[in-house]
Known about the structure:
Blueprint: H1 2-6, H2 21-29, H3 33-46, H4 49-60, H5 68-82
Amino acid sequence: MQDEIQGKVLTRGESGLIAGVCSGLADYYNVRKNGLRLAFVFTSLILVFPVLIYLVLWMILPKYPSTQAMARHLRRKAMAKKL
């Protein structure tokens, strides 16, 4: 319930094997981390597209834990929901 009040922010996960992208996506969408990792590996063997998406997300997603700006954003969102 605490997550619902603060809102979710997509970040790289703290328990990442390589860069934490799959871990962060799994936390955000409430799916199993290993399942998402396996799906990524299998699709990457067939297509190049998942690897490119992974690299882009690695560059643009902030690291865990969130930055101060994201913490301010979450506080503002929580205050807006209370009103």
